[in-house]
């Protein structure tokens, strides 16, 4: 069955997110309900939230040398805040899950098919 | 291509492609196969005669050819089909009817109806951008080639080709399903399809220009698609409403331009030149919609067009009914363009000052770059006696107009006004 990446996007850095705030707690409970529905439908492959982009390290391997730089690869304002990999029969089924994902995290999500196995 | 075949092609290419996509599970394979079948027909029909069921003949021949080819290349076929097949179901490629046996052909053609619907929903998939939806619809359902589509939309062939290639690849990479959407998503998905057909229609409609470019008749193609939709979905009142709207608008085409191709406003058109056959058909469809009583945006717009068609002269137009209909439309589609049209109708009913007041009440920012807004405002200002403001509004409208016939009209209006002032 085809697999799709559903990624969650933030318009800017979220380093200062207050996890104990009622808004964030509400998002957490919505997302775990969504996760449960994915598992129940047998659509779950993997999913997780991500630490802010400021925690990222870029690693390059060129000519046998490995070098590292601080920060995310893409220098964009937008940040990926988390993602799922799901199983779906076709694009329409994937888009339906994506609609529920966007509602659960109250923000835009991006759907991309994986390379066929 | 001989004339008989060209006609069959226009009529059947979309249907054949639609069925072949289901059978073969791939858009490109289907297109190649249909093209090959038409090439065979071009060779055979002039000597053997046109078969009794040309569409079925093409579909069967294309299918047989494609399956032959797939078998020859069977090493890559399994992988190819497994990884790239659009998510279609039925019809395994085992029983192949003989293209010269009209009995089995009829059977095959019966399956075709639903295929065209599947293809419409595929071409107008909401994951595609409107430009891509339009190009793919015209290519796969209308059988238009890339240069024809490019001429139709006044963009380069490379742009159209790229849009089509990208759209096909996106649908394939994403495993887009080849089916009519389920009931829950049908209203939204159908609205996208209808909106694209209407976009094709309006592009053909406003493109009516005297500049002699051999543009494809997009309006006629849109009407043909509208007819197919209402045949396939007779219980969808919005599909019927769209067809009615297109027919009633098309009826005015003979009166829309003068001998040198300049645009003539609705109010100034010679209504004896309106096409009464199209009006009668459009009216009948609007009445059928009213009986069903499930109004929607396209039906309401068709009803407005029907009110215009009812008026023997512009003065006899029932503007109060039109304002009421625009109110209903605005309640469903609260967008600035609907509000603009409503304001114009208000001006007809209560005078230019009332119309200008309605315009002033609008959020004009989204309309700033919209030519009809400035043209309408210019007209109302002129009728309210505010010439200078009217000339300025015409200047802006001319600046924004992308169509020669329309621009000529606007320039004439402005020149008349400026002349009056002197």
List keywords for this structure.
heterodimer; A: about 120 residues; alpha+beta; Alpha-Beta Plaits; four-stranded antiparallel β-sheet; two-stranded antiparallel ribbon; 2 helices; 6 strands; B: about 425 residues; mainly alpha; Rna Polymerase Sigma Factor, Chain: A; 20 helices; elongated
Percent range for β-strand residues of chain B: under 5%
Question: Can you write the helix and strand succession of chain A as a string?
Answer: EHEEEEHE
- Output mean pLDDT of chain B: 85
- The counted number of beta strands of chain B is 0
Tell me the number of strands of chain A. 6
CATH superfamily of chain A: Dimeric alpha+beta barrel
What CATH architecture of chain A would you give? Answer: 2-Layer Sandwich
Low-confidence stretches of chain A: none
Q: Find the biggest chain interface.
A: A-B, 12 and 13 residues
Question: What about the largest sheet of chain A?
Answer: 4 strands, antiparallel
List the total number of helices of chain B: 20
Oligomeric status of the shown chains? heterodimer
Which shape of chain A, going by the Cα principal axes? globular
State the CATH topology of chain A: Alpha-Beta Plaits
Radius of gyration of chain A: 16 Å
Could you please describe the fold and organization of this structure?
The complex is a heterodimer of chains A (117) and B (422). With 117 residues, chain A is an alpha+beta fold. Chain A has a single domain, classed as 2-Layer Sandwich (Alpha-Beta Plaits), CATH 3.30.70.1060. Chain A is built from 2 helices and 6 strands. In chain A, a hairpin with a 2-residue loop joins strand 3 and strand 4 (65-70). In chain A, helix 1 packs antiparallel against helix 2 (91-105). Chain A is globular. The model of chain A has no long low-confidence stretch (mean pLDDT 94). Chain B has a domain at 1-90: Rna Polymerase Sigma Factor, Chain: A (Orthogonal Bundle). Chain B contains 20 helices and no strands. Chain B has helices spanning 3-24, 27-48, 54-72, 74-84, 102-123, 130-141, 146-153, 157-173, 186-206, 218-232, 237-250, 253-256, 276-292, 297-310, 319-332, 336-350, 352-360, 371-383, 387-400, 404-421. The model of chain B is unreliable at 87-95 (pLDDT under 50).
């Amino acid at each position: 069955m085809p697999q799709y990446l559903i990624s969650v996007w933030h318009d800017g850095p979220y380093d200062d997110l207050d996890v104990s705030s009622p808004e964030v707690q509400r998002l957490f409970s919505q997302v775990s309900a969504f996760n449960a529905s994915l598992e129940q439908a047998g659509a779950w492959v993997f999913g997780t939230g991500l630490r802010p982009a400021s925690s990222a390290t870029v690693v390059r391997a060129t000519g046998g040398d490995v070098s590292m730089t601080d920060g995310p690869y893409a220098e964009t304002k937008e940040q990926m805040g988390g993602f799922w990999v799901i199983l779906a029969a076709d694009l329409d089924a994937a888009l339906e899950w994506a609609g529920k994902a966007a509602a659960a995290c109250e923000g835009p999500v991006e759907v991309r098919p994986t390379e066929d196995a | 291509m001989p004339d008989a075949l060209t006609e069959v092609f226009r009529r059947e290419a979309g249907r054949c492609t639609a069925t072949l996509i289901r059978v073969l599970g791939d858009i490109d394979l289907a297109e190649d196969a249909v093209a090959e079948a038409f090439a065979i027909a071009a060779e055979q029909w002039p000597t053997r005669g046109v078969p009794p069921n040309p569409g079925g003949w093409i579909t069967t021949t294309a299918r047989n050819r494609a399956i032959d080819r797939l078998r020859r290349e069977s090493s890559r076929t399994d992988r190819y089909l497994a990884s790239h097949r659009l998510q279609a179901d039925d019809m395994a490629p085992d029983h192949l009817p003989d293209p010269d046996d009209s009995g089995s052909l009829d059977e095959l053609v019966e399956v075709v109806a639903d295929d065209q619907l599947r293809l419409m929903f595929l071409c107008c998939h909401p994951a595609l951008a409107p430009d891509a939806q339009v190009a793919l619809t015209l290519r796969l359902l209308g059988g238009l080639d890339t240069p024809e589509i490019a001429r139709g939309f006044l963009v380069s062939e490379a742009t159209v080709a790229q849009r089509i290639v990208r759209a096909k690849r996106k649908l394939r990479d994403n495993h887009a399903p080849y089916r009519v959407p389920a009931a829950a998503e049908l209203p939204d998905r159908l609205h996208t399809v209808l909106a694209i057909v209407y976009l094709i229609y309006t592009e053909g409609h406003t493109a009516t220009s005297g500049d002699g470019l051999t543009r494809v008749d997009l309006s006629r193609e849109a009407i043909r698609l509208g007819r197919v939709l209402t045949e396939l979905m007779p219980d969808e009142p919005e599909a019927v409403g769209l067809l009615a709207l297109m027919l009633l608008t098309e009826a005015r085409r003979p009166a829309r331009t003068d001998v040198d191709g300049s645009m003539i406003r609705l109010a100034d058109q010679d209504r004896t030149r309106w096409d009464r056959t199209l009006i009668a058909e459009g009216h009948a469809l609007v009445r059928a919609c009213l009986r069903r009583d499930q109004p929607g945006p396209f039906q309401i717009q068709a009803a407005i067009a029907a009110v215009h068609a009812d008026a023997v002269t512009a003065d006899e137009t029932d503007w109060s009914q039109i304002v009421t209909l625009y109110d209903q439309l605005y309640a469903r589609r609260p967008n600035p363009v609907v509000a603009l049209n409503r304001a114009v109708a208000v001006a007809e009913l209560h005078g230019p000052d009332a119309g200008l007041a309605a315009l002033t009440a609008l959020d004009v920012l989204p309309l700033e770059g919209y030519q009809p807004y400035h043209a309408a405002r210019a007209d109302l200002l002129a009728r309210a006696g505010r010439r200078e403001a009217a000339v300025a509004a015409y200047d802006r409208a001319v600046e924004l107009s992308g169509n020669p016939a329309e621009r000529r009209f606007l320039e004439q209006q402005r020149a008349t006004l400026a002349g009056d002032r002197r």
